[in-house]
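Field: COMPLEX_INPUT
Field: COMPONENT_COUNT = two
Field: RESIDUE_TOTAL = 979
Field: MODE = joint
Values follow.
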Amino acid sequence: MRAPLLVFGALLGIAGATAAQQPDPRQQIQQLAIAPLRFNPPQPKRITLSNRVVVYLLEDHTLPLVTVQLVSKVGVANLPDSLWGVGWQADGLLRTGGTARLLPDSVDKLIDFYALNITFSTDHEQSFGTMSGLSRYTTQLLDLGFELMKSPRNDSSRVRITAAQQQENWRRRNDTPGQVLGRAWAQVLIGDHPLGRSLVKPEEIAGFTPERFRWVQERLFCPQNLVVGVSGDFQERQIVTALERQFRGWAACKPGLQEVPSLAFAAGPRVVLVEKDVNQTNIRMGHGGGIRVANTPDYFASQVADFLLGGSGFTSRLLSRVRGDSGFAYSAFSSWGAETDRDDQFFAQAQIRAEKTVAGMTLMRSTIGSMASEPVTAEDVKLAQDNEVNSFVFRFANASQIVAQQLSYAVDGLPPNWFDIYLRGIQAVSPAQVRQAAQRHLHPDKLVMVVVGKPSAFDRPLSALGAVTVLPVDSIIR
Amino acid sequence: MFRLLLLWSLLTSAAPALAQNASPGERLAVVKHVLPNGMTFLLLRRPGAPTASFVTHFRAGGVDEWTGISGTAHLFEHMLFKGSRSIGTKDLAGEQALFPAIDAIADSFTAEFRKGGMADSARLQRFRDRLKQLEDSARAFVVSNELDRILTENGAVGLNASTSNDVTNYYFSLPSNRAQLWFVLESDRLKHPVLREFYSERDVVMEERRLRTETQPFGLLIEEYLMAAFRAHPYGRPVVGHASEIQAVSRGSALEYFKRYYGPNNAVVAIVGDVNVDSMKTWATRYFGDIPAGDPHRPVVTQEPPQRGERRISVEFDANPQILIGYHVPNLRHADAPALQVLSQILTAGRTSRLFQRLVIRERKATTVASFQFPGSLYPRLFTFQGVPIAPHTTEAIERAIYDELERIQREPPTAEELQRVRNQSEAGSIQRLQSNFGLAFQLSNSEALWYDWRQTFRDQAALARVTAADVQRVARTYFSSTNRTVATLVRPAQTPEESH
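Field: COMPLEX_OUTPUT
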């Protein structure tokens, strides 16, 4: 002990000598001259192609790179239930399954040789495509990217590969505690709704055929459902001509999709245990979020509440109490989701040392409750507001990001100036509104709690938190 | 089919000329500004949004730890977020008056803990409880997370740090009109760090270890694999630390580590964005100029002795199988490094690579096959293959295919098309890597910290274009012998029932 203490003393001595020469850093920060930030983010140009597809264009010639982004207004949850599993894998096959003209190997060779990046992704309620590469290969990029969408081959050899890979994914579904938690949570909170699924089941894999993949692709990736964005090193006139050419002759979207079924979240209180032999417990607790994205004080207040509760890292109540004050966990956070057309979920999550599981969960629950029961100060709210206002430049850091933002607003039905509205909304939030939002929408007494861990290692029986339902790991089917 | 004809005409017309000039990265107008104490600043003004990214690398990593303190480099990295003599405290004197008692209890705990199996668990618990109680008392003087709070309110993004075997880095980005704030805060925490809440943070690090390693099949496999492959060199030691050593690290050891390795002459800062380079220079001197130089960094003396035969380990975990296969290869500065990188790309980069084609596409035996060189760049490391089998195929089948493809490339050189593909990908990569301010700052600072030259990382990439088929074949023959190999397989313990599907 002696040696380290001496070192400590010596170090402080040196530090003290220099400290005398400079004012306290808090004073220095107060006195910093911060020039006003003059920044008008470049605005993408919005045009409409002759087939009425909307395109956002933003040129940026800093580097010889071009990026094309596509967002489709529909996703896997819009498919008939029997095609959910096919839909979840239709994105990968669009990229790997070849085209009517090109065998899969030829597509792979072109992409790898030109160092292009072409990916597709089907999500629950939207689908996406991204194509990027050196701008001198823009023609090749567009030709190949659009050909993949317009005439997918779904070569049977590649369908077999996808099936084998998904079968293996299913086999490995319980290998890590985080995977088990995510799937158990969705099954408990959302049940058998398409939005609660993330893994393709063996019976769905058995239904993989080229025709069924094509059925899905022709509906999720088709002109009327797409919004397009182009950013980077291109000339407007050439790219518009090229896009007109790419869309020419592309068949219209086919019927057969459905509205996303309405969603109901399970009601708490509930405690669900999935047993897994690990020395750290994975925990998620929450319920329906009760909020929609809208220009309402309640929505903006919920955003500030989430920031203060668990969305802002170290300064958030969850991380500072569960990690900083207690040393129970490395990670703890909250997520209070919202969509424009439906409610989403609220939850808090942490991975807590097994022998502090119940103490940690009790702390998490009381911290959620603290948003309504303990004061939310003006200083707290100002922190969230200052953070949003001062970091806004990072939302416009490059052309691709700016275009992506406009695509997302367009598909979500938000106005192009939504960010300004959002920023003003956040700035208008008061501490009372934050507490009201928490009182109205956060229910620490009605939490659904899902726990993945080894109960014999817990500090107390989990029943201290309520009646426990054991969910055998093999009964998690999503 | 006509597709092939079309494809080949396309490919041959696309081959760009070999780069004759310096790569785009090497041509960046970076201003290198070195203070008299040796602290190095790399400054680059770029047009675009008014943001500035700050990345600091210290020539201090896991390999620089001494015996018994594994994990300290990383734990110290956590501690630098706890503030300074000013930031993070309401009453420094009151707070620090409690440190000797806290450290004494921690020492008592460690003394008992050292007894291993003979330790008295009740005593250990008493010491733990007392330690918690005393740290909670000290916490009454603490302004929790003040550093983070100041940055959050100023709109900082991406505040984080990471510790690797070779170096430790710290970073965040600010709106560029607030750039001076970085100088105030960073110089303050470097000059006057206070390792407050040390022992509860030690518990946090233990949870980080459980999160990333002990509960993760791949994390555990990697750790065991490195320990098997390196018997002398510290690349075999987990950067996060052995569980027993994390629980016994003292505040004094962490400070000693800081004192040895965090001298300004071992620090490289890169600032990239919409900044005034002259102001940055002025502030660099004003805020960091008075820190006395420390000892220069001395590379690790230990060298891994040549391996004398294949090593095979199995790691039991309740999860499905996967495999790591590694060969000792030289460090990134060795003349063979570019050819090894090209070999890696030919074998596993992209869907057209040889092993991906064979294992994933043609034979459908693996969900994925990858290769990478790690766990560092400064010292000789491992050329590693990772394979994940699709049942009923086994890790043995993946192993056989990898050896088979290695033998094939030893016999038959890579084709001109394969080499051209690597060159094209490298050329695209040399531009893509310049896109973000943060990414660029990270690369500049990392390259200067490792090689005392910010251009080196760009030269390394450009060197790939000059690799010949004969080079690839030569390195494939030199390093990939069974004697030089370590194989680690994840297996399910015998008593755990196999999954039903």
